[in-house]
From TrEMBL:
<protein>
    <submittedName>
        <fullName>ElaB/YqjD/DUF883 family membrane-anchored ribosome-binding protein</fullName>
    </submittedName>
</protein>
<feature type="coiled-coil region">
    <location>
        <begin position="236"/>
        <end position="263"/>
    </location>
</feature>
<keyword id="KW-0175">Coiled coil</keyword>
<feature type="signal peptide">
    <location>
        <begin position="1"/>
        <end position="26"/>
    </location>
</feature>
<keyword id="KW-0732">Signal</keyword>
Length: 358
């Protein structure tokens, strides 16, 4: 079931693959972009930075960073967003081997050498430079399940984790199945506590299932938000271009056409402001959800540290990683919300400028 959940999430990511987040373009420059009325080039760089920092697919992140670090970043970012670069990166990510690489990377990062040594070692081996596409495909098809079985044998031979289980552990996982903010964590927790579930299922949940579900939930959240943001960005770029054209037409209009042209330009900038609302609301909601998840994983981290048992010890590092990821998402969403608020202010100021002209 765990494999099905992971593979389904990879497939879901492919369905969402028509979507819109080094150091050289850091937070200070990003803040400068959103603080003033941004130009199109600045808007493009802010969007590409979001892909580079925030997208779960490595191909998209890499191509976004390449655009930002280009010798001509304005042209490179425009090409990435509207010249086919983003679509090409997503297309490559959707290819089978790229999906396998992302799957293996996720497995490697969510299975620790201490509690899942076979899975961790196999994934690490396949992430090396010399690994082949056929080796990766074989791991995804059968090798992953085989490595998990060997890890279960390893944990059974030691027996420490099964002996450490108490009813409070099972009750906690049942609570997660009902109330955890993440859909994947809820599903995996429900499987671990389903009627007929064994202690092996519960040990697996603590050893790797919880961390895997957490990673899938974070990736799914990012994909959803970025898909929406791409739609918002495409709309606003078109509307700003229309408003700028209408404003120029108003400046160039003859006296007898001036008022009508001004009215059209003012209406165009008003529409720009109106259409920032979905993005501002969406990013506010994303920020609030990320904050809730960060608080959730902080509580889980405290519970794991206080429990101090073999099963809960396996959760400490994943909980710390998940909390950090959701804090990063919360900060990114806050930056994006501020960026869209700056666009709203720009639209208001431009409408007023047209109103006060000649």
């Amino acid at each position: 079931m765990y494999k099905r959940a992971l593979v389904c999430a990879v497939c879901t990511a492919a369905l969402f693959s028509s979507i819109t987040p080094m150091a050289a373009f850091a937070a200070t420059e990003y803040s400068a972009v959103i603080a003033a009325a941004p130009t199109q080039a600045e808007r493009d760089r802010a969007d590409v930075l979001t892909y580079a920092r925030y997208h779960p697919y490595s191909t998209v992140k890499t191509d976004a960073w390449l655009a930002l670090s280009s010798s001509a970043p304005d042209l490179a970012c425009a090409d990435f967003l509207r010249g086919g670069g983003l679509e090409y990166a997503i297309e490559r990510a959707a290819r089978r081997d790229e999906q396998n690489k992302d799957f293996i990377k996720r497995v490697y990062e969510t299975n620790t050498p201490q509690y899942s040594p076979e899975v961790h070692a196999a994934a690490k081996h396949l992430l090396r430079a010399g690994a082949t596409a056929s080796e990766r495909e074989q791991f995804v098809r059968t090798g992953y399940e085989a490595a998990k079985a060997r890890d279960r044998q390893f944990r059974d031979a030691i027996g420490e984790q099964k002996r450490a289980l108490v009813e409070a552990d099972r009750n906690y996982v049942r609570m997660l199945a009902q109330h955890d903010p993440g859909e994947q964590v809820r599903a995996i927790a429900a499987y671990a506590t389903r009627p007929g579930a064994t202690d092996d299922d519960l040990v697996d949940f603590f050893a790797w299932g919880w961390a895997s579900g957490a990673r899938l939930d974070n990736d799914a959240h990012r994909l959803r938000v970025l898909q929406n943001n791409r739609q918002w960005s495409n709309t606003i770029v078109r509307l700003i271009a229309d408003a700028e054209a209408a404003e120029k037409a108003a400046r160039d209009a003859s006296d007898e056409m001036a008022e009508e042209a001004k009215a059209r330009a003012m209406a165009a900038w008003r529409e720009v402001g109106t259409q920032t609302a979905p993005a501002r609301t969406g990013w506010d909601e994303a920020r609030d959800f990320a904050a809730r998840q960060a608080e959730n994983w902080h509580a889980i981290l405290l519970a794991a540290q206080q429990a101090n048992t073999p099963n809960w010890d396996a959760v400490v590092d994943p909980a710390r990683t998940s909390q950090a990821a959701w804090i990063e998402d919360q900060n990114a969403a806050a930056e994006q919300a501020a960026y869209w608020t700056a666009l709203l202010q720009q639209a208001i100021e431009r409408e007023q400028r047209v109103r006060e002209s000649r």
